[in-house]
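Example record for the data management plan.
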Amino acid sequence: MAVLIPTDFSARVVWLGAQFQPVERLVIQSVPLTEMALSFAGLEGEVHGGLTRASCSRVTAQYPKGTTIRNVRQLTIVSAEEMADVAQAMGLSTFDYPWVGASVVLEGIPDLTHLPPSSRLQGPDGVTLVIDMLNEPCQQVVVTIAKAGHDAAKGFRAAAKGRRGVTAWVEREGLLRLGDVLRLHVPDQRAWSHLEQARA
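Corresponding structural encoding:
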């Protein structure tokens, strides 16, 4: 029987944010929060909240665009360390987390963008987030950074490849606060040995 293994890796929440209002086309922006009351539908009123969502371009190989599917993209989780690397690669002194529509920014887990799908991040009160998959760099972020006045925007997609963070959904409801420490739990299974063949 496969199990989830509690690890010695943990991460501190250094930033929380949400998108509550539709913004200008192709521009994304999160507003900072000090805490999130998370339900099974994510954060109430947030543009990515809900138990279901309309399928997007990321799953067109599985469904016609607009198909109602389970929402496993309730939250966007990024690494403070990886965002610092992205900023450096772009020639920026810092990276503004709202540019990527970040929900949760964590510090302390190496290679966060490549956590195994189905890993869990569990907070002090038991609130638990399930990692869905890697989040690819997108054109919306490029537009957002450019509109913030940075010529370096065009370098975002290359700089953020493999460092854009992950999407996640709420498995157990609870409260997430700035400064909380989340413990990482990973599936007890080896990597799928046919992945490279499947990509061919």
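Summary line stored alongside the record: The chain has four helices and 13 strands.
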